[in-house]
Structure formats: C-alpha cells, structure tokens
Write a structure and sequence with these properties.
The complex is a heterodimer of chains A (338) and B (81). By secondary structure, chain A is α/β, with parallel strands linked by helices. Chain A has two domains: 19-185, Peroxisomal Thiolase, Chain A, domain 1, CATH 3.40.47.10; 194-336, 3-Layer(aba) Sandwich (Peroxisomal Thiolase, Chain A, domain 1). Chain A has nine helices and 13 strands. Classes of the chains: A alpha/beta (338), B mainly alpha (81).
Chain lengths: 338, 81
C-alpha cells in the first residue's frame, strides 16, 4: 500500500521574514560594593596584585532582595521603558544564566510572571557567552516571525558559586543583571552571529564537582573553578579571529565601529583582544569590569548599558560584542546601539 | 633552526615588548616570576609570541615547567620545527 499526502503542504502558512534590532537596554548592579581589600586576605594577595592581574577595582555582591529573579526584574524595567513597550507585549523571555540555583524550573517563567508577562520563557546555559547566544536566538525568533518582542536577560549571582579561597577566581567573579529588548524593525539591527564551542576544553572553566558527586560523596558546596592561563590563551588568540569573522559577516570594518563591547572577563583580555584586532585608538572599549567585576552572562549588557547611559557611545552606531567562556563556548555579533 | 643565542635574544625581544624590561636583563639563569616579575598572563603572551616566532608549540601544561629563561630556551631549541 502506498501512503500519499493530501497535498496541502504548499499552503502551510508562515510569517514573513523581517528585521530585528535592540530597542532597549537596562542593567542592575547590586547595592553592596565589595572593594579588593575585602577579598585579598583569604587569597594572600593585595589590592595592587588584583588590579594588575584583572583591572578590577571593586565589584558588587548581591544580598537580600537581590535574587537572580529580583535583579533580572530590576534590569528589565528600564529596558522595557527604553523600548517603549509593556511587559504584556513580550512574546518570549530568554534568560542566560549559570547561577540560578534550581535545576528546574527555569528562572525565566518566574521573571516573566513578576514582570506581568505570560510569554514563552526559558533559560539557556552558555556561561559568559550566554547573552550573545540569547541575542542570536531572539534575533532569529523575531526575524522568522515567531515573536515581535523578545526580552533577553543575562543575570548572575556568581558570589554564590565562588570560593573565597580560590586564588584564580575569588577576585574575579561578581553579581549583576543586564537586559535587552529585541524587537521587529524596519531595517537590520543585529548582524549574523558567529558562534561555536570547543568541548575538548570542557574542564577549563567548570563547577568543581557534579551535583551527584556533591550529594553522594558529601563534598560540600561546589564552586566554579578556572584554568586561568588556558582561558587567557584561548580568549585572546582564539577569540580575536571570531570577532573579525563577526565583522566580516556583517560587512563592517573596524573603522566603522562605534564601540567594542567584549565580555568583561579580565581587563588584560580586553586589552590584548583590542591589540590583536587592531582597533583604532579612539574607539570606545568597554572596561566596565573595573567597577563591576566579571558577571558572566550579565557583563555585556551591563557594559553597554553603562556606555549608553554615560553618553560614551552613540545611539544608532555599531557595536561589536563578543561573549566567550565555559564550554568552552563563544558567540559574537555586530549590533546597532539602542 | 635558531641556535641557543638566537633563541635567547629573540625571547628577550618578546619579553621586552610585553613588559618593557631591558633585553639585557633576560639571562639564562633568571626566573620569570622571581627575578623578572612576570605574571602568569604576561607569561602566556610571551609563550604565544615565542610559538609564532620560533614555529614551536608550547602546551599549557608545559608552560608551568618553564621556570627560568634557560628552561624556555632549551624547550624551544629541542622542539622547534
């Protein structure tokens, strides 16, 4: 017997393809400022040592009333206001995080609920590359017509997963949230994403033990560890070509950029990448890490939010953003600054 | 193939570019950390630049064994391709 289709596949209805752009950006920095002096004793170090190795002067640690969900809501409110939409108009909420302390459910539905949205809501796990991954997903959703407005949140409470005795990370990781609204637009606002992973370096940045080992072997609270030199080499010499590919894919040259906003991993990585890329000396480069620390998925939107708020970068200009981290995973794209 | 003296002077140039140290301070018996005050990230930059200059691959695991300038020179000399 031959099974034949009824013949209606050609009549399947889809949405027309459109453009997408970032219409709003927002950030939330926890209230408690933590200077290097508060960190250095337990890692037998000094303020000078931390500044030299990371460029970090101070960071913020979240406290009561500043959960992953709280910080996400606080970061989103100004982003929605800038985009000129209500939470009820969102079609999807994508939250990039590695420090939401529940295996399930995701943080996104609770954030949506707090905002007053019943949109599709889910989390993604791509660590420090999470925000750029989420922007890519949001862009494709809007371009394909699945959504008109997508909220992207990058949020971390890394202080919950950092050992104060770990000399490689204690002075680096911090807390915060950044949010962006990706909306349908008349003209292109988000260039093609260049992304990928290298699972051979899966252990270069990772939780020290699996939850199952922690439980069965009674290992105590795990933290996120990092092979600093390995990550530095990969980030600087591996990621500069990725950033170049993202510019090529968007048809943009370094001279046409209005900002470079890399993940705020370490100011030494930022500076070395800028050198590798041959960026013009007067190009604004995000160095939010000095006062914010490394907030993983939150670092790029937080850095962009600060630069926009301070008038350092022009609305309508082009920013090259690149996220890279645990996985190892990475994603980069050129975007129009909201 | 570069000989020991050529590798040392090439390495001294790389160290000078990364740290500003006078190339004449980069001597075989000097320790990168204790004598030259080179931190782990600068060391990685020096390693990557040395790889390019001498056509050698220095794995991350090997970098921690390069305590002195002489260690680096010997490694490069015996592994250059």
């Amino acid at each position: 017997m031959t099974v034949t289709p009824k013949g209606f596949a050609g009549e399947l209805r889809t949405s027309p393809v459109s453009h997408a752009t970032i219409t709003g950006i927002g950030g939330y920095r926890p209230k408690r400022v933590v200077p290097n002096s508060e960190i250095v004793e337990r890692i037998d170090s000094s303020d000078e040592w931390v500044r030299e190795r990371s460029g970090i002067i101070e960071r913020r640690f979240a406290g009561e009333g500043e959960s992953v969900v709280d910080m996400s809501v606080f970061a989103t409110e100004p982003a929605l206001a800038m985009a000129g939409i209500e939470a009820g108009q969102l079609d999807a909420v994508i939250v990039a995080t590695v420090s939401w302390p529940y295996q399930t459910p995701a943080a996104a539905p609770m954030i949506a609920e707090r905002l007053g949205s019943k949109a599709a809501a889910f989390d993604i796990s791509a660590a420090c590359a999470g925000y750029c991954h989420a922007v890519s997903l949001a862009t494709d959703m809007v371009r394909a017509g699945t959504a008109q407005h997508v909220l992207v949140v990058g949020v971390e409470r890394l202080s919950d997963f950092t050992s104060p005795d770990d000399r490689g990370t204690a002075f680096i990781f911090a807390d915060g949230a950044g949010a962006a609204v990706v909306s349908r637009s008349e003209s292109p606002g988000i260039g093609p994403t260049v992304w990928g992973s290298d699972g051979a370096q899966w252990e270069a940045i990772s939780q020290t033990e699996s939850w199952i080992d922690v439980h069965e072997k009674n290992l105590g609270w795990p933290h996120i560890g990092m092979a600093g030199q390995t990550v530095f080499r990969w980030a600087v010499w591996g990621m500069a070509p990725v950033a170049r590919k993202a510019m090529d894919a968007a048809g943009v040259t370094v001279d046409q950029l209005d900002a470079f906003i890399p993940h705020q991993a370490n100011v030494r990585i930022v500076d070395a990448m800028a050198k590798q890329l041959g960026l013009p000396a007067d190009l604004p480069i995000a160095r939010d890490i000095a006062y914010t620390g490394n907030t993983s998925a939150a670092s790029i939107p937080l850095a962009m939010e600060r630069m926009v708020r301070h008038g350092e970068i022009p609305s309508g200009g082009l920013a090259l953003q690149i996220g890279f981290g645990a996985g190892l995973s990475y994603a980069a794209q050129v975007v129009v600054i909201p | 193939m570069a000989d020991q003296q050529e590798i040392l002077s090439g390495l001294a140039e790389i160290v000078n570019e990364e740290t500003g140290l006078d190339p004449s301070d980069v001597q075989m018996e000097k320790s990168f950390t204790d004598d030259l005050d080179i931190d782990s990230l600068s060391m990685m930059t020096i390693v990557v630049n040395a790889e390019e200059k001498f056509g050698v691959r220095i794995p991350d695991d090997e970098v921690k064994n390069l305590t002195t300038v002489g260690d680096a020179v010997s490694y490069i000399q015996s592994n250059q391709g």
